[in-house]
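INFO  loader      accepted 1 record
INFO  loader      residues=117
INFO  predictor   begin
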Amino acid sequence: MTSHNRSGFRRIPVISPEPGEGPEKPPRPVRLEGVVRDGVERGSVVLVDEQDAVLAQLMGGDQALLRDGVRVTVTGHFVTGLMTTVQQGRPFRVLDVAPDADADAEVPPAANPADCE
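INFO  predictor   done
INFO  writer      dumping tokens
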């Protein structure tokens, strides 16, 4: 229902959001551990687990630490509604990155089965 004021402009009623429907709360940070790998697209990096399965596509963070083969712990959050060209893992906004304290050296790349024949 609209009404007009004296100047001729329409008044549109304001509808307050229901509880829980207001502005979204910032996402709760998540901690992931794994090994950084170069993604399939130039300049992209992903985090993989011990079986080399992709956990996340890493966005942001200290690029000096996010090098191929480095075992790290990243803190951040998954980004929803974002399309990327990387097509590897869910986009993950890195807020903090720390090298794994137990890792003595970088992890070598996963073996290519074609190289083993």
